[in-house]
Amino acid sequence: MSAIGTVLLKPGKERSLARRHPWVYAGAVNSVTGAPGNGALVAVRASDGRFLAWAAYSPVSAIRARCWSFDESDQINADWFAAKLDVAVARRRQLQEITSAVRLVYGEADSLPGLVVDRYADFLVVQVHAAGVDAQRELLLDALCSATACQNVFDRSDAALRTREGLGERGGVLRGAAPPEQVQIREHGLEYRVDVRRGHKTGFYLDQRDNRRLTGELVATFVRRHGRAPRVLNCFCYTGGFSIAAACAGAGSVISVDSSADALALARTNAALNGLGPQTAAPDERGLAGAPGRAQLQWCCADVFEQLRALRDQGECFDLIVLDPPKFATNQHQVDRAARAYKDINLGALRLLEHGGALLSFSCSSAVTVELFQKIVAGAVIDAGIGCYLRARLAAGADHPTLMTHPEGEYLKGLLLERI
Ligand code: SAH
After folding, report:
1. Ligand 1 contact via 208 beta carbon (within 6 Å)
2. If I label 120, which of 104, 139, 178, 197 is the partner at 20 to 30 A Cα–Cα?
3. Nearest to 180 by CA among 167, 198, 163
4. Which among 192, 236, 337, 342 is the best mutation to test ligand 1's pocket, defined by most ligand atoms within 8 Å of the CB?
5. Is the CB of residue 259 less than 8 Å from the CB of residue 301?
6. What is the DSSP code string of 35-88?
7. How far apart are CA 403 and CA 74, in angstroms?
8. 43 within 8 A of 54, measured Cβ to Cβ
9. 328 near 361, Cβ under 8 Å?
10. Nearest-atom index, ligand 1, CA of 322
């Protein structure tokens, strides 16, 4: 496909593209020639006419163009798109050994800005959030089916995001069979049912795969080290990912809190699927449940902010606490308010943490930087009046890579703290 337009930048505005950042903001554009339509291929040029990038034009978006390639010799055509998808799929091939649910395409990180493709067993779930990938949709779907040998594609694009890009509402079956109410996946030997039609994101928090695994490892290590099964609290548990990982690794008890009754219902189903009874027998008096499947599970439909206070009033304490809240800040303006909310829940959790216990604390707000998040959590440690080691910094899994030139792509950050 040949470029049908040119986006000429204002003087000095070529700098971020020269550093291979893939976005052209509206304010950087001097003029547009060739009357390109929504999603059309354009050449982006510096004010002196120098070629900078091939991009998709987005006339109504604040991000006026998203770059496909910085290489002038690239031909942006069906073969180019198919090659990008092949590479993206191949990059995740090894993950297939440990899971049947993988993010196959992660937008900018895979040179396909605005496209997300998640695979859940035999179903591909896509989000098309930018004009460029929307314009190439049919071609991309063909290439995707052939790269994955998977013929079922379901659209879970976010309507609000599409509107912001000047795109109509979409959703539903794009190719092949409609997904069932719940698609069953297997991750690190554990089974989960995923509601790809109505669940959050595309149905499951794929980005937390490694951290679910880590939670299981922390539980197992705790049992070995202390000779008893840890008490676990999972806040914002959604469909039970961290809870099940902890229970199956030998937790004595797991209290899981979420405000969504639907999410909790699926969490219970997931627990049963992994041989964890709805209210399995309580561990013996010393808390020596130890064996997977013996954990006492409690699913609690409540507001985490309130529940943390209630647990403190009840004199509860835990050996492992997971805090994985929703995005508290969706933009820069909400950062201060989000910081207060993060501080509140972290303080609440730290006050419930036993000596030697671990807190896994996450933020998925990209507007909250790693540095700021660490500062907020450090503030909570100080206010709690306790000592903690920072044992690890955590991030999304390998199928959500961050481009060094596009730090905006990195949203999930976590801290593993150990109470001294
Ligand atoms: N940890 C989960 C993902 C968490 S998503 C996983 O790994 O799968 C955030 C969850 O927080 C959602 O399930 C949402 O229902 C819940 N939530 C949002 N605000 C809440 C609140 N104030 N109290 C309790 N749960 C809340």
Report:
1. yes
2. 139
3. 198
4. 236
5. yes
6. ---TT-EEEEE-TT--EEEEEEE-TTSSEEEEEEES-TT---SHHHHHHHHHHH
7. 20
8. yes
9. no
10. 1
pLDDT, tens digit (0-9, with 9 covering 90-100), for 3-31: 689 999 999 999 999 999 999 999 999 99
CB distance 263 to ligand 1 below 6 Å: yes
Active site amino acids: 364
Q: What tens digit of pLDDT does each residue of 182-240 get?
A: 999 999 999 999 999 999 999 999 999 999 999 999 999 999 999 999 999 999 999 99
Closest residue to atom 21 of ligand 1, CA basis:
303
Q: From the alpha carbon of 238, which atom of ligand 1 is closest?
A: 13
Residue 369: partners with Cβ closer than 8 Å, 6 or more residues away: none
The pLDDT of residue 279 is: 52
pLDDT tens, residue by residue, 122-177: 999 999 999 999 999 999 999 999 999 999 999 999 988 999 899 988 889 999 99
- Name 52's Cβ contacts closer than 8 Å, sequence gap at least 6: 9, 14, 17, 18, 44, 45, 46, 70
Rounded-to-integer distance, Cα 374 and Cα 37, Å: 44
pTM for the full predicted model: 0.94
Angle (deg, nearest 10), helices 261-273 and 241-248: 30
Task: Provide CB contacts within 8 A for 224, sequence distance 6+.
Answer: none
How far apart CA 399 and CA 54 sit, in angstroms, is: 25
> Rounded to whole angstroms, how far apart are CA atoms 42 and 5?
5
Q: Which residues pair with 105 in a beta bridge?
A: 117
Q: What is the pLDDT of residues 104-120, one digit of tens each?
A: 999 999 999 999 999 99
Which residues are bridge partners to 32 per DSSP?
7
Does 324 contact ligand 1 (Cβ within 6 A)? yes
Give the per-residue pLDDT at 282.
45
Which atom, in ligand 1's list, is nearest to the CA of 236? 11
Q: Whose structure tokens read 């099940």?
A: 244
